[in-house]
Predict the structure.
Amino acid sequence: MKITIEYSNKKQIPIKIVSAKYKNNYIVELVFSDNSKKAVRFGSFLKKSIHPLIRSYLKEDRFKKFHIDSGNIVWGKNWDLVFPIEQLYSGKIV
């Protein structure tokens, strides 16, 4: 599933993340290409995971080291942690 913006000329443009700012308690404010903003809470997802790589991002200093790549928010050089844009846009990580 892709989220897109539809313009009057029927051209669809995929939604992308254009910026991300860490707030606190594993909450990141995301700004999307349609200028909408969402404060996404990642803490519950990280705490529920049993995977050691995912749990390693419970170290707040490590979690804060995300970056934007190809319109996604990612952690790690090899995209260790990345989420579907649909979930991020909805503001809820499943």
Observations:
- The radius of gyration is 14 Å.
- DSSP finds four helices and eight strands in the chain.
- Helices lie at 43-48, 52-55, 60-63, 85-90.
- The longest helix spans residues 43-48.
